[in-house]
Design a protein that fits this description.
single chain; 371 residues; alpha+beta; HSP40/DNAj peptide-binding domain; four-stranded mixed beta sheet; 15 strands; 29% helix; elongated; binds zinc ion
């Protein structure tokens, strides 16, 4: 059975952009996905065909080989020969929908290239942000194959130098008057040939897995803080370095404290009697509560600064401050005896020196009126 042209399979022109190819494949993949067409062999064939076409056309180097040499350019080397298992198809399928986890860029190219960076969204409590914490993350990713250590060769078998390009990964071709260097079609530019591919990763050197990672979240992190874990992203290809893992932190709000940079703010209600006479209060902090003196004659809205009791600065030993904002609560229900005392209090207020000012004012007014 002869293979159909990849461009025909995806119904795109030979000049189609990467984006057009991606969209075309997405459409086909949805249309022919085995889950949507149970027991339909033709749909499955179409699905595989589309996945294979996409695997080639999304990759600039494979695509240019295909454009120049057709299917032969990809097949005569024993390296790339379509998909060997359904896992491979879904691997490629997973790539295009890699946004599932908010992760990932498409993999591709046979040249050594760095692995993709990953993003992990982590929610922590306010107290965890204040004290720091250690979290276990389970991250689905493409990682180095443990079985072969990433070489792609079965244990005991060797990786041999590619005879076609003598290990350089590059061959020269005559193009009209020019001689140009292109990636070796035999080894995909690796410079090496794997005779007996690793069973676990089928020679890729990488596998999909769930990686458990213990991550230390430093004290003082804030909403939107990003921790970069070098080399904890996806495995690179053909010896390329691992990508990085970014842990993006969301701090849940606290019932007691509000955060202003590294300062903490809390609102403390006191009675008007406490405000007038002064009092001792127990104030919650990030650690144990502390005792604080509220001076006589404190006004509602006054803010007291407790130095060094705020959030820690990242990586330092300094802390922000704790700002205690005092709110005087006016009683809404009082007994008749309290009312009596307050009226008495008011009467006494009238006899305070303040009254003198009023008297002078009254005198001045009388004088004007009297004239
Ligand atoms: Zn392997
Ligand atoms: Zn080669």
């Amino acid at each position: 059975m002869s293979k159909r042209c990849y461009y025909e399979v995806l119904e795109v022109s030979r000049e189609a952009s990467e984006d057009e190819i991606k969209r075309a494949y997405r459409k086909k993949a949805f249309q022919f996905h085995p889950d949507r067409n149970p027991g339909d062999d033709e749909a499955e064939t179409n699905f595989k065909e589309a996945a294979e076409a996409y695997e080639v056309l999304r990759d600039p180097e494979k695509r240019s080989l295909y454009d120049r040499f057709g299917h032969e350019g990809l097949n005569n080397n024993g390296g790339f020969g379509g998909f060997q298992s359904s896992e491979d198809i879904f691997g490629a399928f997973g790539d295009i929908f890699g946004e599932f986890f908010g992760f990932g860029q498409s993999r591709g190219g046979p040249r050594a290239r760095a692995g993709s960076d990953l993003r992990y969204n982590l929610d922590i409590s306010f107290r965890e942000a204040a004290k720091g914490t250690e979290v276990e993350l389970d991250i689905p990713l493409t990682d180095t194959c443990d079985e072969c250590g990433g070489t792609g060769a079965a244990s005991g078998s060797s990786v041999e130098t590619c005879q076609h390009c003598h290990g350089t990964g590059t061959v020269h071709q005559n193009q009209g008057f020019f001689k140009i260097a292109v990636s070796c079609p035999s080894c995909h530019g690796r410079g090496q040939i794997i005779k007996d591919p690793c069973k676990t990763c089928r020679g890729r050197g990488t596998v999909r897995k769930q990686k458990s990672l213990s991550v230390r979240i430093p004290a003082g992190v804030d909403n939107g803080s990003r921790l970069r874990l070098r080399g904890e992203g996806e495995a690179g290809e053909n010896g390329g370095p691992h990508g990085d893992l970014y842990v993006v932190i969301t701090v849940k709000p606290d019932d007691v404290f509000r955060r202003q940079g590294q300062d903490l703010v809390l609102t403390q209600e006191i009675t008007f009697v406490q405000a007038t006479l002064g009092c001792k209060l127990e104030i919650p902090t990030l650690d144990d509560p502390i005792s604080m003196d509220i001076p006589k004659g404190t006004q509602s809205g006054e803010v007291f600064q407790l130095r060094g009791l705020g959030m820690p600065y990242l990586g330092g030993s300094h802390h922000g401050d704790l700002l205690v904002e005092v709110k005087v609560k006016t009683p809404t229900k009082i007994t008749s005896r309290q009312e009596e005392l307050l009226k008495e209090f008011e009467k006494l207020e009238d006899e305070k020196p303040m009254k003198k000012v009023k008297k002078i004012w009254k005198k001045a007014k009388d004088k004007v009126m009297g004239d």
